[in-house]
Amino acid sequence: MVTIYDVAKEAGCSPATVSKAFNNYKSISQKTYKKIMETADKLGYTPNNSARALATKKTWLIGVVLSEELHTGITHPHFSEILQSFNTRIGEYGYDIVFISKRFGNKEESYLEHCLYRGVDGVLLAVGAKFKDEIKSILESDIKCVSVEGIYPNKYTVISDNRMGSFQALEYLYFLGHRKIAHIACPLNSVAGRERYEAYREFLESRGMEFNPKYVVEAEDFTHEAGQKAALQLLQQTFDDFPTAVYVAYDDVAYVSMTTFQEKGFRIPEDISIVGFDNIKISAFTTPPLTTIEQDRMEIGKRAADLLINLIEEKEIDEPYEIRIPTKLIMRNSCSRVAE
Amino acid sequence: MVTIYDVAKEAGCSPATVSKAFNNYKSISQKTYKKIMETADKLGYTPNNSARALATKKTWLIGVVLSEELHTGITHPHFSEILQSFNTRIGEYGYDIVFISKRFGNKEESYLEHCLYRGVDGVLLAVGAKFKDEIKSILESDIKCVSVEGIYPNKYTVISDNRMGSFQALEYLYFLGHRKIAHIACPLNSVAGRERYEAYREFLESRGMEFNPKYVVEAEDFTHEAGQKAALQLLQQTFDDFPTAVYVAYDDVAYVSMTTFQEKGFRIPEDISIVGFDNIKISAFTTPPLTTIEQDRMEIGKRAADLLINLIEEKEIDEPYEIRIPTKLIMRNSCSRVAE
DNA sequence: GTGAAAGCGCTAACAG
DNA sequence: CTGTTAGCGCTTTCAC
C-alpha cells in the first residue's frame, strides 16, 4: 500500500504537504501541488479513508435504514428508486451509502450501535412509523438525519404530497361522474396509508358525499398477495352495490385489483374505473394502462440528499421540517366516464 | 466518544485487555471478560471501525458494483433481490455493503480507486460483460471478488443455469405440441441473453426443428419499452406465419409481450402460449398468470456471499469457478396445448 | 492471564 | 508556503 509518506519522499516534500494538497488547501504553491499530484499518480496512491476518518472523525459514509420486514426495502420499486437517486446525489459530494441493520455480527445491536460502529456522518431514514421504537435511539442521538417515509418531530422529511395526490385522483374520478368511489388503502400505520385515506375522507366530505365504511378496505402489507386479498374483500363487502370507481393507494395493488376485478367479470374501465398511486414503471404497460398519481422519486431522493449534506456540513437551511413534493395525475386508460 | 481507554480505566485493566475481550481472545479470564463487557455496556461503548480498520487493514466492507446504465441496478427486480439476500448473509458475518461507482467526488475515478479508498475486503460484481473494460482494473487487482452476472476467467461466479432453464421452458412447450416456437431474447451482450438464446438454438436442433431467424428478436435493453418494441417486431416479422408459442427471456418483457399480443387481438394462451424467465413477484398476478422459469435469487445471493467470505477469510474452497444454480419451471396459465 | 509500547495512514495545530 | 509533531482509537507483539 502506497502512503502519503511514499509520495512525500518521492516528491521531495513532507507528508503534511501531501495531505494538504489532497485536501485542496489553498496554501500550497501551484508548483508543489502539481508535483505532488504527478508523483501520486505515478506511484498509484489512493488516500486511505479509514486513516482519514480516524483523524477527522468523518467517514463520508451515510447510513440508510429501511425495513425489509414490510416488503418495503431495497426490493420495493418506490424505495429503490428513491435510494438510487439519493445515492447518485450523495456520490457527487463524495459520500457513500451503507445499509444499517439491527442484526449485526450475530448479536442484537440496535440501529444506533451500527451507526456508531460505522461512524456514519448522517442517516437516511426510510422506515415507517411502525418502527418508531427501533429507530428511537438514532432519533434521540445527535446523528444528522433525514426521512423519506416516517415523520418525526424536529426532523426533516421529504415526502410526496399525499393529500394533493389523493385529491388529484379523486377529483378526476368525480369529474368523470363517479359518485360511488371506493378506496383500497395501504396499511394505515404507514404515513402514505394514513394520509391518503384521510384525504379520501376529506374529499368525500368536501363534496358532500357520504362516507361508507364498506367502500374502504385496508391492505395488510405491501405485497401483491395482500392487494389481491383486499380487492376480493372489497367486492365481497359491496356485492349489493358495487362501486363505479376505486382509488387504490399504490400501483402494485391497483394492478392486482384490476386483474382481480377482471377475473370476476368486471371490465376496466367500463364497469369499474381505477386510479392508482406511484406510477411505477410497469403501470404504463398494464391492461389497460393504469391511470395513476406520479410520485417524483428522483426529486425526493435528490432533495433528501441535499438536505442531509447541508445538515452534515452545517450549512444554513431555510426549509420547513416537512417538505412535500408535488404529485401529478397521469391519465391513461383505466378510467372512464361513469355509465348512466 | 467512549473509547477502549475509558472502558479499561473503569474496568481496572489495560486497553489491550479490553481489545482482546472484544476480539474474543481465549486468553482472557472469564471474570475480567465479564467485567469488561459490563462496563462497556454501562459506558455505552461501541468499537470504532475506522480505528480498527487502520490497525488491521480490514474494513468489513464489501463493495458492490452494479450498472444502473443498463437499467439493471438496484432498481431491477432480479438484482435487487439477489442483493438483499447477499446483504443479509454478509451481515450475519459482520460485513456491510458499499456501492462502488465510477464517478466519485466529481472526478473520474475508476472502480478500483473507489475500492481502494474504501479499503473494501471484497467485491460483488453484478455487471454485464458489456462493462468488462471498466471493471478490468478490479479483476486484475488482487481484491477478492465474486460475480453474479458476468463470467470472468479464474473468478467465481454464481449464476442461474440458463441452459437448464431454457430447456425446461422449451421442453414444456414442445410437450404441449408447439413446433413454431419463437424467442424474444434479452440483449445478447449479457450472459443471460446469450446463454438463453444459445440454448434455444440447441434445443431446436436437438429436436430436429429448423431454426428460423424470423422467429427471434433481441430486446434492446431491459426496459418495458424495449420489450414492447420487441414483441411488436416479432409480430411484424412473422405476420405470414405466427408462432404458436414464444419463449421470452425475462418476465418483465414476457409480461409486456402478453399485453402487446392481447392488444393485437391474440388470446393468451389460446392463440399464443408464453413462457418467461425470472419468476419476479408480479408474474403470479398477470392475466393470465405467467408460466415461467424460476431463478433462485435467495440462493444466488447467499451462495455468492458465502463464497466471497470464504475467499476473504482464505478458507479452503472446493467449488468450481462457475457455480450454476438450478432453475425450476413454474406452471401457471399462459400456456396451453397447441390448437389443431 | 495481563499490560506496555509501537504503529496503522492521515490530519491539524503550530512553528518557521 | 512548508515542515514538525502529536495524536485519532484500536491491535499486536513481546514481556511479565
Automatic annotation (TrEMBL), chains A, B:
User: Which keywords belong to this entry?
Assistant: DNA-binding, Repressor, Transcription, Transcription regulation
Name a Pfam family for this protein. Answer: LacI
- Domain HTH lacI-type, residue spans: 2-56
InterPro entries attached here?
HTH_LacI, LacI/GalR-like_sensor, Lambda_DNA-bd_dom_sf, Peripla_BP_I
For this chain, one GO molecular function annotation is: transcription cis-regulatory region binding
Q: What is this protein called?
A: Catabolite control protein A
> Which species?
Caloramator mitchellensis
Kindly list the organism's lineage: Bacteria, Bacillati, Bacillota, Clostridia, Eubacteriales
